[in-house]
Specification:
The chain has 14 helices and 22 strands. With 493 residues, it is of the alpha+beta class. It has three domains: 257 residues, no CATH class; 40 residues; 99 residues, no CATH class.
Amino acid sequence: MRRLMMMDKNDNASTGFSGRSDLGTVIRRQNEHSKAVALRVSAATDMEYLRGAVFDRFDGFAWQNTEKIRRIVEAKNLAAADEAGSNSEPDEFVLLKTGEAGTGDLQKLTIWPGDVPPEILFTPLNTVSVEVTATLLTFSQEAVIHASGHPSRVPWDIRRQTGPVLTAFSEYDHNRLTELPPALAQSPQLNELVRRITAGAGTVPEKVAAVTRYLQQNHRYSDSVAPPAGADPLLWFLMNGEAAHCEYFATAATVLLRQAGVPVRYVTGFVAAEKNPLTGEWIARNRDAHAWAEAWDAESGWMIVEATPADGQPRQLESGWLRSLYEGLKSWWQRLQAAVQQEGAVAAVLMLFVGWWEYVASSMFVVALILAGRQTWQNRRQARSSVVVEEPLIGELHQQLSQMDRAAGQAGYERSAEETLHEFSQRLKAAASQSDRNAGQLTQMAAWYHSYAAVRYGGRREEASVTRLAALLLQSLAVPVTDSSAVTETGGR
């Protein structure tokens, strides 16, 4: 297999996975068609972190990838494909040399792309080989994989090492991955904080555990972050105990560990945390875009560093039955299209025929269960009293929501029937960023709608939570409305 060196001149411009990522890139990706399926993973036994971009340099405001050199790995059948004029057959690309792949079993996964760029092969950490339809594959210093000539919607198979992978790690790599911008490296406050957090932690795993524990216990998750103008955003977050989203937590973990002498890199990608019970696939949607870190340990190789609090991580869940049926059909159709591209129409139909009938049988069984359950529910409903006792706190929450909706309408913003609370909150935040006169009120309203959704639907419906929400409501309404001439807006999905 021929290997060359090249400069990577084709940084992907897609949100979250280009050569630069600021401290808001991933959160924007989450809000773009949030329910759209980005990736599906077959044969996985648990949720998967799927890497799309890795960054090594932080300038205080954004991450950059300075390692532009990629190793070219050509397919074994590339020459024959070139002579034939096409290459529809997948080929295996070995990424790690013999002796680098570590010990332990190899696990094979199949990754199906959805709403992602076709040239980026999202893969888990410690991937040692890829089987994909492509003319050329590049493998970066940080193990990010790009494929040229890869058809969209066509999957790739990967093999990843379940045990430690000890690749070459030079002094240059150590220096590069412990580097910090001068404002952070020379900050007395940051140095003292690192000293306190890592006191008594000697090994890399101990330092990682200390840093992640500190961040998760001393900071809250919020998808709305607004550092003061002119402030260093990370120092503002760390020194004031501010709430923030995954990009701040991943960056903070990277900076704190680097200051403690641990080589760390910043990673963006997706977490496939939703399982389809019919197909067995793990799904990552756009809302599951995420940022995390990876730390290097000379004894165990690279390890994932998850510093975001639990309520800010993509949650492990199981798809509902109706959604599972619908997306299972879409999955089958994508498999058919990919098989036609790779095997030809006749072979593809024969290959998928058995799988189709297995899916239909399981789907019909599920539909029967749903219908039986619906009939049982209707029978019980008719048998019991028609009087429904409403939870006392629900009535109070409804009153608060009506009051805030009226106030938002007076400020010029009406929530449409199809607009979710989170979507309306995002619209108010966007409007606040463009308003000079009532930005304060719009920002507080946006925060209130976000908090209301958490209290009403997030399992935290307690009297104390409702009382705090009422206080936030009064605080929001106390901000004067100065933009009374605003034209009433309505929004939707």
